[in-house]
């Protein structure tokens, strides 16, 4: 399996790693099939993600996609962060092997889960902003981005 130089760089030297103590939004997602678990922390001020970090238990691609995803949403308004797709994360990493695409889906889901948590803490229903966060029981992906055929 070949990884791009960007994937290897983000795996070897991940950005924004660790627990964010003053986070006001935390999202955790996992994939039972492969064992990857991502926890995303966001600090939001005036609807802008002023700080973000992650803790990921998983393979190199899971760590690299978490790292890249945090880079892509830091300093962005929530509305823009919610538009980040797993495809954009993969492109920013100059590609991922097909068997590792689910890692980028987890990164996208972790961001959405953290933003949903932020809205809930503000007493706001996150559904109109984030959509429903339902997971496929077979693979752990949300129903919309599930690619396992269930």
- H-E order: HEEEHHHHH
Helix coverage percent: 25-40%
SS-based class: alpha+beta
Order of neighbouring strands in the sheet with most strands = 1-2-3
| N- and C-termini, Cα separation | 26 Å
Poorly predicted segments: 143-150
Instruction: Using the alpha-carbon principal axes, give the shape.
Output: globular
Brief write-up:
The chain is of the alpha+beta class and 150 residues long.
What does this structure look like?
The protein is an alpha+beta fold and 150 residues long. 39% of the residues lie in helices and 17% in strands. It is built from 6 helices and 3 strands, in the order αβββααααα. It has helices at 5-12, 60-73, 78-81, 86-92, 101-121, 127-130; strands at 25-30, 37-45, 48-57. Strands 1-2-3 form a 3-stranded antiparallel sheet. β2 (37-45) and β3 form a beta hairpin. α1 (5-12) packs across α2 (60-73), α2 (60-73) crosses α5 and α4 crosses α5. The longest helix is centred in the C-terminal third of the chain and has 21 residues, at 101-121. It starts with a helix and ends in a 20-residue tail after the last helix.
Summarize the SSE layout with pairings.
Blueprint: H1 5-12, E1 25-30, E2 37-45, E3 48-57, H2 60-73, H3 78-81, H4 86-92, H5 101-121, H6 127-130
Antiparallel strand pairs: 1-2, 2-3
